[in-house]
Amino acid sequence: VIDIRKLYGQSGMFTYDPGFTSTAACQSAITYIDGEQGVLLHRGYPIDQLAEKSSFMEVSYLLLNGELPNQAELEKFNSTIMRHTMLHEQLSTFYRGFRRDAHPMAVMCGVVGALSAFYHDSTDITDPTQRMIASHRLIAKMPTIASMAYKYSVGQPFMYPQNELSYTGNFLRMTFGVPAEPYLINPIVERALDRIFILHADHEQNASTSTVRLAGSSGANPFACIAAGIACLWGPAHGGANEAALNMLREIGRPERIPEYIARAKDKDDPFRLMGFGHRVYKNFDPRAKVMKETAQEVLDDLGISDPVLDTARELEQIALKDDYFIEKKLYPNVDFYSGVILNAIGFPTEMFTALFALARTVGWIAHWNEMISDPEQKIGRPRQLYVGATQRDYVPVGQR
Ligand code: ACO
Fold this sequence. Notes:
single chain, mainly alpha, two-stranded antiparallel ribbon, 18 helices, 5 strands, binds acetyl coenzyme *A
């Protein structure tokens, strides 16, 4: 705590907290994390129970509305979401302006931001009905947007949604199906991907959610706010870690090389970090990583795939968990450590990993955005700073400097 009167003669006190390690920026009733115990609850429900027993649609309803739906509510929610899956046809022209080798996250930032140019009837944030329509649209359109980014990158035609399919089954078909052939959804893959979506759905005030809240605090429309969240998520310290983790595991290649990478991660002169390890809040196992690890094994077994990357990941985890450096700093695998192994087995290229994270996190972002906008005490977010620059001085004409 700094007495700013001593520094600048202004009144009041403020905290200097780089990285917001100990500052609550809001009150929230959506998600609870106990980082010391490795607990994650959505609206009170443990993440492992949700991952095992529910569906992404159910969890989306829960995050948005505060309670689990009954059967009729779930069916209505599902059909509402699926009714909004189509994108305005003009947006396909927008895709064609990108290079084919554009990163899908670059495309997602652009296309999601552009939604506000198409859906004017859901940008009035003072109207709760419009806010809910925008929320449904965003949840519904993200699979279409992400799959179109993929299709564009591989040079295949865009696939229109099929709304009688499940949310996740429809996404798989739009991504891996082709118009000329029927696409058979593998129920094991569909369930695994749905579980990955559940595990990524929300995580309280992480960097991207805080970005969405900060953007929304100025009154920006929801599509623009979610685009801001996508931009933040892209970084390798956040959602980009799933792509970076798989690339790292592939680079390690075989278990014999693990000690070399552990040594690099511990070397303070080397910027290398073990990707998919460590977390700002968890100082224990990330409960999502536990479910992800089990799911990775199940999916690979079910698909009959033997992936040496999974062996490397397991071995790396075992070695790191016994190493004094990782023990002392309380560094455990996070949600991104095992997710890449599953996504790779399903057939997604690494560049799509963070786009899938964005797809799933959209529901969390929009739930937080709604919670913030509905709060009568909501104000524009405006952090202060600790000024460390020059004191006042007089301008000197350029010829005399
Ligand atoms: N490998 C090696 N050392 C690490 C790692 C790691 N993965 N993570 C943290 N450390 C060390 C740091 O060097 C630091 O050491 P020091 O105290 O000697 O300086 C100490 O642990 C604390 O690290 P910070 O960066 O200060 O911790 P912070 O809470 O700011 O960062 C973060 C958390 C960004 C997740 C970090 O652990 C990291 O970079 N991990 C790798 C990237 C990653 O997996 N990100 C995904 C996070 S989960 C998500 O967003 C979905």
